[in-house]
Amino acid sequence: MVLLDRVERSMVRLNRRLRWAAIPVAVATAIVLAGCTAQELNGYLPGFIQGEPPVTNHTERISALWVTSWIVLFGVGLIAWGLMMWAVAVYRRRRGQTGMPVQLRYNMPIEVFFTIVPLLLIIGFYFFTARDEAVIEQRFDKPDEVIQVYGKQWAWDFNYVNENVYSSGIQVQPDLSPNAEQGAVDQASIPTLYLPVGKQVEIQLNSRDVIHSFWVVDFLYKKDVIPGRTNIMSLIPEREGTYMGKCAELCGEFHSMMLFKVKVVSQAEYDAYTQSLADKGFSGQLDSNYNRNQNLPGVVAPQAATK
Questions:
Q1: pTM for this structure?
Q2: How many Å apart are CA 266 and CA 47, to the nearest integer?
Q3: How far apart are CA 244 and CA 261, in angstroms?
Q4: Would you state the pLDDT for residue 21?
Q5: Domain annotation for the chain: domains and CATH numbers
Q6: Which residues in the chain show pLDDT less than 50?
Q7: What pLDDT, on a 0 to 100 scale, did the predictor assign at position 213?
């Protein structure tokens, strides 16, 4: 009982000190956050520029989930570290003390606390992740543009479905110019996907051979490209610019060279680009007949043999 009374008195004193400490901490936090840049406020994620709109309609939602998760985890960490340091300081061996200290075990309230709190954290993370994922994965009823993307070792093909034109990519080539840095690539050889700003875009992802992953870094979003399956990305590009993309799934020897660009442009520039593809003779669509992997299971029931 004496030990429990000492613990309770210590906790009361600690709570009183924490309340007084919270005021300068809150003020300091507000001052620090007021001077943060857009990238810092969004957890150092790429794609954020002060005073500019987000890259897509999903990037702010993704960054909010990321930043909030880290705030909660840092809060839990600070509490845990603080309690450990407090226990070390309060229950340290004093001068003249010998032998083992009083041992505590089977403290049911503490054990229940350390079971319930992590469970609530996991449930909370799951809820907010599932909520945001449901919004991000929601397909548009009538998208303004439908683009089919084929991943292949080691490049990308783009079908602009509405305009019935296509762009076929080749593997990125090294930069052989005399002054090129070691490992530099020829920028003109990088396949480029054009997207109209402010429009609802559905991107249909297919593979011609093995599993790839379609990742536009500044979109904060990636999705696997799986043989025999069509995955969908639905988004609205909100800021014009050029954004780098890459394959994020190890897919073979030249995986690191499987790059592409995404150019978000005005509707007029987008129309001019798709018209230029038609003028070059790139009309029609690149279909699955060009797939290297042709032994995938079909979706049609086998037919009985005819005599």
A1: 0.77
A2: 19
A3: 5
A4: 59
A5: 36-92+103-136 (1.10.287), 145-286 (2.60.40.420)
A6: none
A7: 96
CA 145 to chain centre: 23
**Distance from C-alpha of 93 to C-alpha of 276, rounded to nearest angstrom:** 80
Q: Answer for the pair 187, 198: CB distance below 8 angstroms, yes or no.
A: no
Cis peptide before 215 (omega within 30 of 0): no
Positive/negative CA dihedral, 280, 285, 287, 289: negative
Residue with tokens 């990636």: 222
| Helices 108-136 and 59-90: angle between axes, nearest 10 degrees | 170
Structure confidence at residue 109 (pLDDT): 84
Q: What is the DSSP string of 171-240?
A: PPPB--STTPPTT-B-GGGS-EEEEETTS-EEEEEEESSS-EEEEEGGGTEEEEE-TT--EEEEE-B-S-
Sign of CA pseudo-dihedral 193, 150, 221, 196: positive
DSSP letter assigned to residue 99 = S
Neighbours of 160 (CB within 10 A): 22
The pair of three-digit structure tokens given for residue 34, joined into one six-digit string: 């007021």
Measured between its terminal Cα atoms, the distance across the chain in Å is 93
Contact yes or no for 250/242 (Cβ under 8 A): no
The pLDDT value given to residue 131: 94
Please tell me the predicted confidence (pLDDT) of residue 62.
Answer: 92
Say if strands 201-207 and 145-152 run parallel, antiparallel, or are unpaired.
Answer: parallel
> Tell me, what amino acid is at 79?
I
Beta bridge partners of 149: 158, 205
Query: 232 with 178: CB under 8 angstroms?
Result: no
What would the 3-class secondary structure string for 240-303 be?
CEEEEEEECCCCCCCHHHCEEEEEEECHHHHHHHHHHHHHCCCECCCCHHHCCCCCCCCCCCCC
Convert the pLDDT of each residue in 127-154 to its tens digit: 999 999 999 999 999 999 999 999 999 9
